[in-house]
Specification:
Length: about 325
């Protein structure tokens, strides 16, 4: 399991061969064998002996900012990387397969969006035909991406344009299907302009951390991207690779709002926007974890939904070094 620590005043230290988490007068001991990651948000204190215990059991410690995005990570030193994987990542952008990889990831993301919208509309017959034009455009954008040929560098702006237009239709429909009080005007971040985006931004931040971890375990360098520009300290491959999995957060956040689980007490009004508070984070993490742990069929196996990320990262790494003929 992942241990989320997001309550102010939380203290975690080593007690014998166990972690002891203290929140006020409440104390709870947890075996390191049961923990895969420790996720820290808000004012939490962790001792060096607890850090050492985590590293001895290959447990990474991730620190999240107020938006849920990881700003730091304590990682065990032995990583599953080879020089060949990194070299191939640098080379593939200039090959035809670089474009094909990005087309696959982007098309999969848009397919997830289309299928989710179709599912939501199938349960709302009174508005089912209201969005035929938007869905037709989303499908057209997806097909246009899949039909691109040539180099990735020549097509990168086109792909981003099609993907951006698709997302505008997607979030427009989601906004109109939640309670009127929480309707929103497109995506916004840093800060979120509305509670829906505040929840979504924090969920994506958690997902960024999981994608980065999967890439590192598979031996992939998070900083060597294909579609996104390589800038100093920018985890470009994380931004590329995350796209097909955003749906895990999208569904979680949408259902929290559509089922009226969210209230004004879950967000704080800040300058020019909204921020998730401790209660909002607790609500989101609980539901995200439940959805991440849902068993799905992937690659011919029954696995947790969140584990598809690591499975796909390994598949991509093996493709790069020739252990798989196609990806």
């Amino acid at each position: 399991m992942e241990l989320y620590l997001n309550t102010f005043g939380t203290f975690i230290h080593k007690a014998g061969d166990m972690f002891e988490v203290c929140i006020g007068e409440e104390k709870k001991r947890i075996s390191p064998e049961k923990i895969s990651s420790i996720i820290i948000s808000n004012a939490t204190t962790i001792t060096t002996d607890a850090v050492q215990l985590a590293l001895e059991h290959n447990i990474d410690i991730v620190f999240l900012d107020a938006n849920g995005e990881p700003y730091g990570r304590i990682w065990f030193p032995k990583l599953g990387s080879t020089t060949l994987i990194r070299r191939r990542l640098l080379e593939i952008e200039k090959e035809d397969s670089g474009l094909e990889i990005i087309k696959t990831w982007t098309s999969r993301k848009i397919s997830n969006q289309i299928e989710f919208i179709k599912l939501l509309l199938s349960k709302r017959p009174e508005v089912q035909n209201n969005y035929n034009n938007e869905l037709a455009s989303m499908i057209e954008f997806k097909n246009s991406i899949e039909n691109l040929t040539g180099s990735l560098s020549a097509n990168s702006n086109t792909i981003m344009g099609f993907e951006g237009n698709t997302s505008r239709y997607y979030f427009k429909i989601l906004s109109e299907l939640i309670p009127d009080k929480y309707k929103f005007d497109g995506r916004s971040s840093r800060p979120a302009k509305d509670p829906f985006n505040a929840f979504l931004n924090y969920g994506y931040g958690v997902l960024y951390s999981k994608v980065e971890k999967a890439l590192i375990i598979a031996g992939l360098d998070p900083y060597i991207g294909l579609l996104h520009t390589d800038n100093y300290n920018k985890k470009s491959l994380v931004f590329d690779f995350i796209e097909p999995y955003r749906i895990l957060c999208d569904k979680t956040v949408f259902y929290l709002f559509s089922r009226r689980s969210v209230s004004d007490e879950h967000c704080d009004k800040i300058e020019n926007g909204f921020s998730l508070n401790a209660e909002g984070k607790k609500l989101l993490i609980k539901n995200l974890t439940e959805n991440f742990d849902e068993i799905i069929r992937h690659g011919g196996r029954n696995i947790k939904a969140i584990d598809q990320i690591l499975a796909d990262a390994h598949a991509f790494a093996n493709f790069l070094i020739g252990k798989r003929k196609e990806y």
